[in-house]
Amino acid sequence: MHYGADYNPEQWPEEVWPDDVARMREAGVTMVSLGIFAWSRLQPSEGEFDFGWLDRVIDLLHEGGIAVDLATATASPPPWASAAYPELLPVDADGATYWPGSRQAYAPSSPVYRRLAGELVAALADRYASHPAVVMWHVNNEYGCHLHADYSDAARDAFRRWLADRYGDVDALNRAWATNFWSQRYGSFDEVFPPRKAPYSHNPGQALDFHRFTSDMLLECYLMERDILLAHGATQPITTNFMGAFKPADYAKWAPHVDLVSDDCYPDPNDPESFRAAAFQRDLVRSLKPEVPWILMEQATGALNWRPSNAPKAPGQMAALSAQAIGRGADGILFFQWRQSKGGAEKFHSAMLPHAGTDSRTWREVVDLGAKLAALPELPWPEAGAGPGATGVPATAAPATGAPPTVAPATDARVALVFDWENWWAVEASDHPLNRLDHVALVQRWYRALHRRHVQVDLVRPEQVDSRYALAIAPTLYLLRETGAAALTAFVEGGGHLLAGPFTDVVDEHDRFRDGGFLTQLGGLLGVRLEDFGALVPADAPASEPGEREARFADAHAAADAPTADAPGLAPFGEQVGTLLAEELHAIDATVEAVFTSGRRAGGPALTLREAGRGTARYLATVPDEAGTQAVVDRLLATTGVEPVVAGLPPHVEVARRGALRTFVNHGGPAVDVRVTGRDAASGDAVDGLRLGPWDWALVLDA
Ligand code: GLA
Asked: Can you tell me the mean pLDDT for 669-692?
């Protein structure tokens, strides 16, 4: 279990470093991420490296028994680089340049940026690959953060090359992008641009490919650095820090190339429900690479600096969120950052060692958590997922195969919640029946409903849904690849239970309709035909926007559905609120479970069920609000045999299963008594029932 932080010694006089190391030891720090933004100190000018200070600080850490996750420092090119090569600066869609003076001002496809970054990485690897303190490599930092896309000339040239690679000849691109529309037909790849500022809507195929390209350019930067590290003798695991559901980077495509996933997560203490968003993020990153534990690379000890209001964490909340991460697969708890900065834009950002000093609640909590983590044994990882990295850091750098990850049943999850970056990009494109869908918010609503019921969930692409799961929920799976549709179909036929949400199976991978209407791939399985999407006005739209804002729906046979001896769990749900869409759906070969009870669609099917093969396929024709989502989830749980990890807990108490470990966290609500038996993971003492007060947590191994 690693414990530590980003460490930025370049911000401090050298005399401070011994105190840093002494304090780190006091806090139980085992590893620091070193030098993430130190490029200008490591390379004062082109061709000139200054490693003396880094040598000294690494040696000092090593003497103190503190391991180093060494950064490649390429996330913020120094001012000399852009002064000499202004073409490496990124540009927005309107043609405005992002100038130096902040951080991350580089165009990922810029050949000169890549050359300079590569030279620095090679020099670092040559010097430190065999240093015994270095146990991991931290490539760049939060790729794509701040700068979600680059439209520079470097991007233009790279986009043209990327398209030529993808399509081979320009006619294939013309077909994929349907360029006969609006006179967009291209005669050569050299006529194509990134979707820069334009008079009106961009071509949707172009916009979707630009998302793919943007993710791929960032990934190319990562792969370049990783390959240089390996070529220059690195044997340590290599990672780069992800940011959960971060739209610009398709981490599902990235995950095979990192030896372990590391993730940065900053739930908002002002939001009492943000622990559920944090749980979602942790399950997402665990699902990306389920064969090994992941590392929480950054979280805050207390307040941030970058939200409109930056509340401190409540006493105990930092440790509670750390326990949550461990329960959902983390084998490392690290922070941004070690010592609070004295100057710079982040001087108000909390740290392990706060500016207020060691006589502070933060410091006491940091020391306390360090001691608790140090007492833990190696934590279990499930059989099927157990790999070299049972401790979170594999012993050697795993070969990057590029193969898609197979989700092992890492946490006994029996529910697959479908989440796919390409679909995310496509579903949020413009010019849709409803142009205000927030896809992650909708997926998270389903996640919250499952989380409140203490059900363990994996977040997977449609292709990964298979017989390991009992239930799969696919909210708004607008872009559905043939491979994904085939997997979902096989899942149901083999005995799985599927719920497909509205606006699903609408387009192919180029964001074009398929012939034959909508639901062309899943319609038969679901037994329905979709005629129209029935957009509603979002509830939060200004009053001046007229129209229906909701479409209520209720059990089609509420009375008949009352629990009986034959169907004991099938509790009817009362009238619920559907939002955003009230689709015009026809049940062809499906039972209507719920009907719309208000609005234009009143009387029409809202939820259908078809028994298919050995499983069932449901279709939901609206986006239920929070309560409605809970009602539908409760119906699904009652009919699919999915069990909670532990039954009977209130919603503010979380439980997660990780192999033989169950982690319980009270996220700040009233004290509860938990009926559980086992062994305390740290002490080994028998556990027979727990009392969890606000922010209390417990790691319990099976007896
Ligand atoms: C990101 C960055 C860090 C720091 C934190 C502040 O996660 O990686 O360098 O800026 O945000 O919260």
From this structure: 97
Q: Give residue 657's domain range.
A: 391-411+652-703
Ligand 1 touching residue 349 (CB < 6 A):
yes
512 domain residue, yes or no: yes
Cis peptide before 337 (omega within 30 of 0): yes
Ligand 1: centre distance to CA 113 (Å): 22
Question: Distance (Å, rounded) from C-alpha 126 to C-alpha 120?
Answer: 10
Give the model confidence (pLDDT) of 407-448 as tens digits: 444 456 799 999 999 999 999 999 999 998 999 999 999 999
In the annotation, is 626 catalytic? no
Ligand 1 pocket test, candidate residues 138, 142, 347, most atoms within 8 A of CB:
142
Are 630 and 671 part of one and the same domain?
no
Strand partners, 680: 700
Is 424 near ligand 1, meaning CB less than 6 Å away?
no
pTM summary value: 0.95
Contacts (Cβ under 8 Å, ≥6 apart) of 34: 7, 9, 54, 57, 58, 61, 68, 69, 70, 71, 138
* Percentage, residues of the chain above pLDDT 70: 94
CATH number of the domain at 624, please.
3.40.50.880
The per-residue pLDDT for range 462-506, each reduced to its tens digit, is: 999 999 999 999 999 999 999 999 999 999 999 999 999 999 999
Q: Which of 183-192, 302-311, 495-504, 548-557 has the lowest mean pLDDT?
A: 548-557
**Domain match, 609 and 671 both:** no
Known active-site residue 142: yes
Question: Is the shortest distance between the CB of 336 and ligand 1 below 6 Å?
Answer: yes
Q: Are residues 251 and 312 in the same domain?
A: yes
- Of all protein residues, the one whose alpha carbon is nearest to atom 5 of ligand 1 is 336
Catalytic residue (choose from 298, 365, 550, 654):
298
